Fold this protein.
Amino acid sequence: MRTKNRLNPIESKYFRPEITNCPECGGKLIYCHPVWRKTISTLKGEFKIINLGYRCENNSCSNDTVYRSAEAEQLSMKHITYGMDVIAYIGYLRFKEHKTRSEIATILSEKEVKISERQVQKLYERYALLLRASVKENMKETLENIVKEHGGLVLSIDGVQPEKGNETLYVIREVLSGTILAAHNLKSSASQELIGIIQPILDWGYPIQGFISDGQQSIRLAIEQIAPDIPYQYCQFHYFKDIAKPLVEKDRKLKTNIKKKLRGIREVERKIENSPSKNIEEEVASDYIAAIRSVLLEDGKPPFELPGTCVFERTNAIKDSIEKCLDKKGDSST
Ligand SMILES: [Zn+2]
């Protein structure tokens, strides 16, 4: 287990928050720093996940919340380096197929997930604990603090289906803190079933700033039915896309050109990923790469905001910052 001879470095994946605008003032959220970085083994391979933090661009706004991607949170659990898909699969193999730890380790290694029997046991325990999760005292405290600091919770729901199982593991999270609030195995993903697991959380009575999920129809219907007033992400901003197409076309070319010029950062990423020792310069470089990646994820909202123009402005700002940083370094070494 100790020697991981990788021919290829692990692919890095960057995520930005699904929420694009400040819930308080409506200002745009802009990149500030990576919230966390973590290597996660999933059934689809091993990835280095970087969850990018964004906050309100408006200096006079009182909202200093750092928003992060719910999708990135959904990939795994705190302190666990395996994906939710692996955890759900282990639960399925143990609960439904009654496989032993060593059988499960073998099945997973056939899928190129490196795991020991001990880790299988640990993940199985986490899975069992997850399904028993209820409001615990420490969770209450976390949620109360979130409400105090940020004015409300941001909830996300995601379903993971182990490949052969006929049940889906639904996990509900509070996104700002990364806390898992509930997890249930559902045989059906119909709206009624989903309401059954979302409603109890709404009944806790905390104010909710938003609800985030993928486009799954039944989830959208469930939320519309029980919480029509809570902003739901992923249904907005689709209206204006068709307007202003010619301008958007030119802007896209600008973005493509900038992206081409920034291709070299993959090389720098590889060097950092392969470097055995992490020194300060590499830390700084990887922070800059995260900043550049965040810019490249910029979609803008044409026609109001043009992604290419945005990318141009932001990459220039990063360039200035790097130059300043190099100047400082020059000063201190002389
Ligand atoms: Zn704001």
Q: What stands out?
A: Residues 22 and 294 are 17 Å apart (CA to CA). Residues 1-6, 235-243 have pLDDT under 50 and may be disordered. Residues 307-333 form the longest helix (27 residues).
